[in-house]
């Protein structure tokens, strides 16, 4: 046999083939592909949770600003800034990608969120100097909006695994994902604010406090982060302990006492507080001037001077309201109609509860009274701290309730009181032509209505609302101020005053006149004896089209409320400045 290389035929089971090797290489290539299921899961598992948590943090952050600056000043340009800062962070990472840095920002983002409540508490101490415009901007940059830059950076870094620029091109690989992600952020942020957070708070009171939610979000971000350095936990722990033990905004018992220690320096004490569906609601008491107030965010819903032994010695018989406008609304009982309305037969509807001054007085006269209130905590505190009789308040949205009741026409009211004011502005949905028309449908044939509107007669919005009221009641109305104009101002300047206007209207044609009140009408109140009857010298004429800045035929239609956003923002800023003269800055800042 010749020597040399031999070819031996092996059994098929022992032969090696090239094909399996090729399949293995193809499989490995698919796994390393930017759009492989494994890569997509890894990328989406980081990017989507981080962006969703940022969308949740945004409305929580705004809630923390509302007690200090008001909900509306805190929301000015918030959405636009949110989207812009996310874009900045996203593009920042794209630019740094060229230097091949693997720096992960997520641990720092979690650390930042943990310390955000403490940082805000420190910044809030200077809110009086910052003001309602610069204050939210600075606080946002150091907290939510600065955090959104880091979020954009983290999401952009996570998406690098998809190699979008190599797949779509340099421009499209950046523009398309950032637009999609910005739209996702905006949509989820709105859903979190309007649906998820309210639902979350129905599960447990633990989700009511925004400070708790911030700490929970920080924990979730740390869990999502692929990297978990030891320092993140060691430095975040003091932030959590500070929130639990020393942050006055946290809703623990120790924190409650700490807050009272702080505001005792300015002679105030906190009686109760809670987060609710309209914002931060609390009851406070002045220890030196002896009066009690209920606040919602950065506005007061009402208050009373307390009946002390000294005041009783001076002839006081009851607690007296701090705002005369609530008593002046009760003048609907004094309006002369035919036939006259007996208290024992009368039905009254009150839209907007506040501390319950007006509905409580109507009940005291024996009038069957129903009050509509959106916030359950406002109703609870009005009963607990301001002696409102229980069982007369319906917790509901007034627009839907009035609309439905108007269609049913099952009950008519002799008196309707309309007094709604929150966040430094009037909720315009309760002053539209359709709402006022539905409200009029609930009036008995000889029924009357009293409305309180706070605004500036020199602005088109105020005059548009007055136009709408005038038209809804066929011009059968009169307007009164709640206080005389400034003595040292001429007519032009007096029209620029921000004032409460009381509008009294009747359902059927006739003059607007009031009977003289008797001592029975005053319910033992010295203040009511002075303010109950509207003063003829405080009457204001309905504006002409020249005064209004809007055509006399123009009215506020449902759906047009958003057109007046700018005017409402200006009103809220003006109201913020007024409120800072009513209570000490520390009371607003400490919540």
Look at the structure and give the CATH class of the largest domain. Alpha Beta
Under the CATH scheme, which architecture of the largest domain would be assigned?
A: 3-Layer(aba) Sandwich
Q: Stretches where pLDDT falls below 50 for ≥5 residues?
A: 491-495
Helix content: 40-55%
CATH homologous superfamily name of the largest domain?
A: Vaccinia Virus protein VP39
Average pLDDT score? 87
Number of domains: 2
CATH topology name of the largest domain, in short, is Rossmann fold
* Cross-sheet strand order for the largest sheet: 8-7-6-9-10-12-11-13
Q: Any idea what the radius of gyration is?
A: 31 Å
- How many alpha or pi helices? 25
Helix and strand composition category: alpha/beta
Measured distance between first and last alpha carbons = 104 Å
Number of strands: 13
Shape: elongated
Strand content of the residues, in percent? 5-15%
Largest sheet composition? 8 strands, mixed
Can you offer a commentary on this structure?
This protein has 591 residues and is an alpha/beta fold. The chain has two domains: 32-245, no CATH class; 309-589, Rossmann fold. 51% of the residues lie in helices and 14% in strands. It has 25 helices and 13 strands. α17 (398-408) crosses α18. The protein is elongated, with a radius of gyration of 31 Å. This is PABS domain-containing protein. Residues 1-32 are annotated as: Disordered. The chain crosses the membrane at residues 40-61, 81-96, 108-127, 133-156, 168-187. It comes from Hortaea werneckii (Black yeast). Pfam families: Spermine_synth (PF01564).
């Amino acid at each position: 046999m010749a020597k040399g290389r031999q070819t031996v035929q092996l059994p098929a089971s022992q032969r090696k083939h090239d094909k399996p090797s090729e399949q293995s290489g193809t499989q490995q290539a698919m796994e390393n592909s930017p759009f492989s299921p494994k890569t997509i899961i890894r990328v989406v598992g980081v990017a989507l949770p981080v962006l969703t948590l940022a969308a949740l943090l945004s409305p929580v952050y705004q809630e923390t600003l509302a007690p200090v600056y008001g909900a509306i000043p805190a929301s000015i340009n918030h959405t636009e800034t949110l989207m812009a800062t996310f874009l900045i962070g996203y593009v920042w990472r794209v630019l740094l990608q060229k230097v091949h840095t693997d720096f992960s920002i997520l641990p720092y983002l979690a650390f930042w969120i943990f310390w955000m409540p403490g940082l805000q508490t420190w910044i809030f101490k200077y809110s009086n100097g910052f003001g309602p415009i610069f204050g939210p901007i600075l606080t946002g940059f150091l907290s939510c909006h600065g955090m959104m830059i880091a979020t954009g950076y983290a999401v952009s870094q996570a998406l690098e695994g998809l190699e979008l620029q190599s797949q779509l091109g340099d421009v499209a690989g950046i523009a398309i994902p950032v637009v999609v992600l910005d739209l996702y952020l905006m949509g989820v942020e709105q859903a979190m604010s309007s649906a998820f957070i309210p639902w979350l708070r129905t599960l447990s009171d633990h989700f009511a406090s925004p400070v708790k939610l911030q700490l929970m979000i920080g924990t979730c971000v740390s869990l999502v982060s692929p990297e978990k350095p030891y320092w993140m936990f060691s430095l975040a722990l003091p932030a959590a302990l500070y929130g639990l033990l020393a942050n006055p905004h946290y809703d623990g018992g120790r924190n409650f006492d700490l807050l009272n220690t702080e505001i005792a320096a300015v002679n105030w004490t906190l009686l109760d507080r809670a987060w609710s569906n309209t914002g931060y609601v609390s009851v406070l008491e002045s220890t030196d001037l002896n009066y009690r107030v209920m606040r919602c965010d950065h506005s007061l819903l009402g208050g009373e001077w307390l009946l002390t032994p000294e005041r009783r010695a001076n002839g006081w018989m009851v607690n007296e309201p701090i705002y005369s406008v609530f008593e002046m609304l009760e003048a609907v009982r004094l309006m002369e109609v035919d036939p006259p309305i007996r208290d024992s037969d009368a039905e009254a509807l009150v839209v907007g509860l506040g501390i319950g001054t007006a509905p409580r007085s109507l009940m005291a006269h024996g009038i069957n009274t129903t009050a509509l209130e959106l916030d359950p905590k406002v109703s609870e505190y009005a009963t607990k701290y301001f002696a409102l009789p229980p069982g007369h308040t319906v917790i509901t949205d007034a627009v839907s309730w009035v609309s439905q009741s108007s269609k049913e026409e099952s009950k008519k009211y002799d008196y309707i009181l309309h007094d709604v004011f929150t966040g430094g502005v009037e909720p315009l949905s309760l002053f539209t032509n359709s709402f006022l028309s539905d409200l009029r449908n609930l009036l008995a044939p000889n029924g009357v209505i009293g409305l309180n509107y706070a605004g500036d007669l020199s602005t088109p919005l105020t005059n548009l609302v007055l136009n709408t009221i005038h038209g809804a009641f066929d011009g059968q109305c009169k307007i009164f101020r709640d206080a005389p104009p400034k003595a040292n101002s001429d007519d032009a300047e007096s029209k620029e005053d921000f004032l409460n206007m009381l509008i009294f209207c009747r359902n059927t044609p006739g003059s607007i006149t009031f009977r003289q009140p008797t001592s029975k009408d005053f319910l033992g109140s010295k203040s009511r004896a002075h303010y109950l009857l509207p003063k003829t010298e405080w009457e204001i004429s309905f504006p002409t089209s020249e005064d209004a800045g809007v055509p006399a035929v123009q009215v506020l239609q449902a759906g047009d409320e958003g057109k007046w956003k700018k005017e409402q923002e200006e009103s809220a800023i003006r109201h913020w400045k007024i409120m800072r003269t009513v209570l000490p800055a520390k009371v607003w800042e400490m919540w």
